[in-house]
Write a structure and sequence with these properties.
With about 600 residues, the chain is mainly α. The protein is built from 25 helices and 5 strands. The chain folds into 3 domains: about 140 residues, Butyryl-CoA Dehydrogenase, subunit A, domain 3, CATH 1.20.140.70; about 180 residues, Neurolysin, domain 3 (Orthogonal Bundle), CATH 1.10.1370.20; about 120 residues, no CATH class. Its cofactor is Zn(2+).
């Protein structure tokens, strides 16, 4: 079975006539959109007709942009040495900035209308885009003038985005000298991080402290990057009228403070159960009471059984079939149509990724399959993302965007299905490894991301007063880690450069890439609890929910499956499922 993907339905190469033709077409669409906005946005005459024209032009532009950018991104992720792909990505990003002025002009013009609901009701096209238009109206209140927004977009390329590129270059190019079984070797930072999952404790420890030394060597430059990115964010969001970067992110996530507070109240209350797990893990690994941080991801049990890629695909399809035939059929199509690049190789990114290409109603998945059962779970996770996209396949391009917290729901739901199937078929020792890995992952997204969330809140508060030194960032990070992990971790082993390990802090316009993942884990657990309770009757509800996520806020989307995300009880029930896993883990020892 082929472990590489086929991108031909998108493009065959950057030099193909189709790719070059679409680049030219994109340029023409940009010119058409800008010309249209200049001529049509002068007055509110024939407003309904103008809104329809904009939607048609912008849908067309976004569809082309999606195809071109996706191809370049996929090519780059699968081969980091492909300079052409990186150059194309930069070029497509620049072209995207050229429509900022027209986009803002339309938003401001839309905001000048006082009868938007009446206008929307006059046309099936406008009714179809009602949620999108209402979202634009909400966002328009936080937009500056066309010239100011256009200037910000252009200046970010030499401001925050330049800082982001510098950080990415620093962490991707730094090489570290390390002894592996007595032999000196020079490896990348990503390879070093992967050693956190090695069976050999000595190697885990050596790699962990080598990672800390590597971060220390680039800490001043990284601090400059973080200060530049966070300082710019505070300035821009203040100019636009947001109370804080968090408010901006919540609005973009279609999530309210009540949901966030209910979730974090439950998480904070649940921390002791995770602390209990970490202390038990420390005991099993032979440590005194507390777990050294270099062992937090240490694998447990005898996870030595291998599985072929063909058997992994069969296992995923059969597991999904226990939920629904539609999900199973979709997974089979993903494998049969070669939507996945699962081959491990030099120069390929070392993380899982699903890219939705809505214009061609397909997705592509990056994974690194080494024959471990944990790799099967990663594949299931990414196919879950693709299935979410499949449920939105009949929507127009502008109606395919769903909030980040929801984005992890389908993926973790599918991951849970396969995890539970694996626990029923693998040997006892292998099952113990899978169970522990599931708890470890949950702890990572709940406990560690809680620390990240606290840090980012405090970072922005401190950044208002001026730049933070490396020492101040270190202290802030350590305090937040201690608050989350409590006395379950040997505090002396937590290196202070953890803030450099969180790529989200360095991503322009993507603040707080932490709580959405906690939400995704717990929300998907809550959904699975509903599935256990309601069985087959839940399947159609689930599909309806996924189909509605692009045209509803989180509260209303959750109501489709009779879930109240404002209820602390919902979050506690989700956490109770993890509690049961922790109890099972402790009882197996």
């Amino acid at each position: 079975m082929d472990l590489t993907w086929n991108l031909d339905t998108l493009y065959t190469s950057f030099k193909s006539e189709k790719f070059k033709g679409d680049v030219e077409l994109l340029n023409q669409n940009i010119a058409n959109l800008n010309d249209w906005a200049t001529k049509k946005m002068k007055d509110t005459n024939n407003a309904a007709s103008k809104i329809q024209e904009f939607l048609k032009l912008y849908n067309k532009y976004k569809s082309l942009y999606c195809c071109l950018y996706s191809y370049a991104e996929l090519t780059s992720c699968s081969d980091s040495s492909n300079i052409e792909a990186m150059n194309v990505l930069d070029d497509i990003e620049y072209k995207n900035s050229l429509v900022t002025d027209s986009y803002v002009k339309f938003n401001n013009w839309l905001n000048s209308l006082n009868n938007i609901d009446e206008l929307i009701d006059t046309s099936p096209t406008l009714i179809e885009h009602r949620f999108y238009l209402k979202e634009l109206l909400l966002q328009s209140k936080y937009l500056l003038s066309e010239n100011e927004e256009s200037l910000i977009a252009k200046m970010q390329s030499t401001g925050s985005k330049a800082w982001q590129r510098l950080y990415m270059e620093l962490i991707s190019t730094i090489l570290v000298d390390i002894d592996i079984e007595g032999k000196p070797k020079e490896i990348s930072l990503s390879e070093l991080r992967n050693m956190a999952y090695e069976k050999n404790e000595s190697l885990r420890k050596t790699a962990y402290y080598a990672e800390a030394d590597a971060y220390k060597s680039i800490s001043k430059a990284s601090a400059a990057c973080l200060n530049g990115i966070s300082g710019e964010a505070l300035t821009i969001y203040d100019m636009r009228g947001y109370k804080s970067p968090l408010e901006k992110v919540l609005m973009g996530s279609r999530m309210d403070y009540e949901t966030l507070n209910a979730m974090f109240s439950s998480i904070k209350e649940s921390l002791p159960m995770f602390h209990k797990y970490y202390r038990k893990k420390a005991e099993i690994l032979g440590h005194k009471v507390k777990l050294p941080f270099y062992d937090i991801f240490a694998p447990m049990g005898d996870a030595s059984t291998k599985i072929s890629y063909l058997d992994a695909s069969d296992l995923i399809v059969s597991s999904f079939k226990t939920f629904s035939q539609e999900l199973a059929n979709f997974a089979k199509k993903v494998f049969d149509s070669r939507w996945i690049d699962a081959e491990p190789r030099t120069g390929k990114c070392n993380y899982g990724l699903a890219v939705d290409i809505f214009p061609i109603k397909e997705s592509r998945i990056i994974a690194n399959f080494n024959g471990n059962f944990s790799d099967v779970v990663v594949l299931a996770h990414e196919i879950g993302h693709a299935y979410h996209s499949y449920c939105l396949r009949n929507e127009k391009m502008l109606n395919t965007d769903y909030p980040t917290p929801i984005a992890e729901t389908a993926s973790i739901f599918c991951e849970t299905i396969v995890n539970n199937a694996l626990l029923n078929i693998v040997p006892l020792n292998e099952g113990f490894s899978i169970l522990e890995k599931s708890i470890s992952d949950a702890g990572y997204y709940i406990v560690d991301f809680y620390a990240r969330y606290i840090f980012e809140n405090k970072l922005f508060e401190r950044r208002k007063l001026g730049q933070l030194s490396v020492e101040e960032l270190n202290e802030l990070m350590l305090n937040c880690m201690e608050e989350a992990y409590g006395d379950s971790i040997d505090f002396e082993t937590i290196h202070p450069y953890m803030w450099m390990d969180k790529i989200g802090y360095f991503m322009t316009d993507n603040e707080f890439l932490n709580f959405p993942y906690s939400f995704g884990v717990l929300f998907s657990k809550g959904l699975y609890a509903e599935y256990i309770k309601n069985g087959e009757a839940f399947v159609s509800q689930y599909n309806n929910f996924l189909s509605a996520t692009s045209k509803n806020n989180i509260v209303d989307s959750a109501k489709i499956i009779d879930i109240d995300v404002h209820s602390i009880d919902f979050w506690k029930n989700a956490l109770n499922l993890i509690q049961k896993d922790i109890d099972a883990f402790i009882s197996r020892v």
